[in-house]
Amino acid sequence: MEFDLRGYVRLLLKRKWWLISGLIGTVAIGMFVTVATTPVYQAQASLFIGQRQISTAALQLGAVVTNLSDDLVRSYAQIIDSRSIAQRAISESGLEQTPGEIVSGLEALPVVDTQVIRIIYLASDPVVAERVTNAVAKAFASEIDQLESSPQPNAQPAIQVSIIDPAVAPGRPIAPNPVRNMALAVVLGVLAGGGLAFLVDHLDQSVKSREELERLGLPSLGAIPTLDTAGEEVHLERDTQGAGGEAFRKLRTSIGFLGVEKPIKVMLVTSSVAQEGKTTVALNLASAYALGGFRTLLVEADLRRPSLHRVFGMYGTRGLTTVIVGSVPLEEAILHTETRNLSILLAGAIPPNPVELLGSEQLLDVLTKLRMMFDVLIIDSPPLAPVADPATLAGRCDGVVMVARAGKTDRRRLVESAGVVERAGGRLLGVALNFLRVGDSAYEYGYYSYGHRSPKVGEHETAETLQRHG
Q1: Which CATH topology does 41-165 take?
Q2: How do residues 104-140 score in pLDDT, each as one tens digit?
């Protein structure tokens, strides 16, 4: 697998709150452990193991004597760590610790290539550490005098133990080390937070970029950024020069290229589930066509939860349903908007049988008439997953635009919805990835990264001209 450093950086930036959470959590744990840990003080003393007298015969075997001295130093280090020395230190110096407590905190280390033994003792009190270390050193010296004493009267022991560096009370503990602990916590926090970010991203089954759409085998029509709608559907005419306006113009152009050989006049806009932003996309895509010079009709085929009447402030019972049943002429049901070249056909009265109406021959007659009256028809329908309405309409349109919400729409459900469109005889033009934040992977190397000037209406008409005369 190719190493993509920029991709990893983008992922960490996108999942930065997981990274920050892991870092904060690990640092907090490190601080707690540091504060809760009992301080440990270390005192040490150095002993020199020497021979008080060497016979003439021993001098002639100097190398052997040296080797024996090295063996003795290592052996004496083992003796220092014994319970007998601890007990003797307690008896001679009046220590309050038990032999087990002394042995557990005691360590004797021979210094390599010398006859020096370093005694180290760890305790939670610096004074106790000093006292126990010196007591053990003295007890060991007394023990060696007793072990190495000669049976001859007034003879001195052959081995002499000298305390060359007595222990002193340490000024600060060796543990915990706040600086080291915090540095380690930061490193572990970055690793833990980064690992958590990668894990969450791996477990996240939502589609997040146009590249993921392509890996799923779904064509990408474009990326639409998150827009500040103030709770309302955004009309392209209010945002002609911004990122939103440019995104819908590019979406219009992408569809135009798909209709070079066979013009796409009737488009169904749907999604896999609700709250994907399909109505906003349908509205603004229709506005993009209208402002591009096309006679455009936006048809509200969501006969269950219509909403366009609130967007345009147009209320009434005339609409698609009344035209299908023949109670209102088609021309009277079409309403004109303030946007140049844009008209709308609202849903009308909500029927008890939406699927039957949308699958009727009367709807085909309505679409045939509308094809002759307008250059482009944009049909807004319900989501695919909960109802069969969009599948019924898919085969009656020239193409279907699927809207997916970045970071929300499940990949598997999106693929299943695309399969529903194909099985219904519809042509999936592609997926419009909605609610992308500028700076995400879909925009990282895109048009907006270089501070371009948003083109004015009419600057992207090549594909539309091809479509119109195709």
Answers
A1: Alpha-Beta Plaits (3.30.70)
A2: 999 999 998 888 999 999 999 999 999 999 999 999 9
